[in-house]
Amino acid sequence: MTVIFGSIWCVYAFLLFSLIPVLEPTWQGPLLYVSNSIQLVALPALMVGSAILTRGSDQRATEDHAALIEILNDVREEVARLRTMTTGIAQTEKENADRPTDVVSIADEALITVNEPGGTVSGSSGGLRGADAPRS
Questions:
Q1: What is the bridge-based pairing of β-strands 121-122 and 103-105?
Q2: Contact 113, 119 (CB under 8 A)
Q3: What is the pTM of this model?
């Protein structure tokens, strides 16, 4: 019944119904009675339809709220992980800043001091070999 009262055709029908007294003034009394009867029937029908739509809307809002809370918790976890990662990065940068700048590590075995002329090579590999050896 809510679908019928909510349609545009019902609006057109009631418009025509309300114009009948203009064409035939003697019908005004019976039309007023019919009009009041329609209002008494239509009002509860529209209220029931509105309540059903509201119930569906409330259920959708509850589901949306639960989904948004889950997304918020996921975002909080990601932010906590990013904070942990950036803390590690900041600590690594601080450790690198505390290192001496005149020593360059090429591999785990060889260290070259940059500031000394000729570059001192130390490590278990025995220094540079082959094409990498300094020329005399």
A1: unpaired
A2: yes
A3: 0.38
